[in-house]
DNA sequence: CAGTATCCAAAAAGATACTG
DNA sequence: CAGTATCTTTTTGGATACTG
C-alpha cells in the first residue's frame, strides 16, 4: 500500500456505487459475475472439486479460461486452492467462507432467473415478433 | 418455434444446471451478469432514466455497448423501453417487474461484495505476496 | 493430473462521425 | 436526444501441443 493519496472511489458507506469507474469493488464484482466466474463458483457450490472434474462440470469452458478464472477467484479470496502432494498431482478447489456466502447469493439469482424463464421466453418471442430480424 | 426436437437442456426442475452448455437460461444469466448487464440494471434500480442519463450513471460505458446491453435486456424482458413522442426524442428506460426482482438479487450480491471488500483486499495482498509477479 | 505456452480466429471494446 | 455506422485496436476463445 503506502500512502496512495487516491482521491478515491466508492465509499463503502451508505450509498454504494459500483457504478463508478475506479471503484475498487467493480473488478471484483466483474470476476464473480463475469463470463465464467459465476459458472465456476456455482460449479463448486456443492463441494470441492479437482481441476478436471470442475472443468467437466462447467460445460464448455476451456482449460485456459478455467485456469485464469480460478486464479482470479483465488486471488480475491473466493476460492481456496489445495495442492495435494504426491504424483500425479491432485489439486482441489473449494469455496472459502467468503466464496460460499457469495455463491449463495449468486445461486439465488440464477435460481430466480431459472424460475422465471417462461416470462423471459415470452418476452423474447414478443420482441422478435415486433422487431425486424435485421434489415 | 416449430417442433424442434431438441434433446434439450436443463430441466427447470429440482436440480438446476445452468452449468450445461445449451441450457436456455445460460445466455440470459450471462446478459444480466455480464460486463455491462449488471451495472446497467443496477443503474436503473432507483428509477427510470433516459439513455444519456443512464450512460452518465454507468461510468465508462460506450454508447454502443449501452445500446447493445439495453437491447438484450429489453428482449429478455428485464427492461422496458418507453419512447416518448416529440422531438428531440426522449426515451425512457425502466425496469420491468421481472427486472426489478432480478436487480434486487443483483443488488444483494453487489452489496455483499462491497461489505466484504476488506477481506477481498486482504486476500489479494496475501496472494500477491506469495505469488511471483511475472517471471 | 494439472496446468502452461502458442497461435489463430472471433468477438468485444473504443473512438469518431453521422442521422432521424 | 437517441441512437446507428464504420473502422481500428484489444481481449477473448478454441484447438493443439508440451511439461512437472
UniProtKB/TrEMBL annotation, chains A, B:
Residue ranges annotated for the HTH hxlR-type domain, each copy included: 23-121
UniProt keyword list: DNA-binding, Transcription, Transcription regulation
UniProt-listed Pfam families: HxlR (PF01638)
Classification via PROSITE patterns: HTH_HXLR
Claim: Transcription regulation is one of the keywords in the record: yes
Record PANTHER family: HTH-TYPE TRANSCRIPTIONAL REGULATOR YODB (PTHR33204:SF37), TRANSCRIPTIONAL REGULATOR, MARR FAMILY (PTHR33204)
Name used for this protein in its record: Winged helix-turn-helix transcriptional regulator
Source organism of this protein record: Marinactinospora rubrisoli
Lineage per the UniProt record: Bacteria, Bacillati, Actinomycetota, Actinomycetes, Streptosporangiales
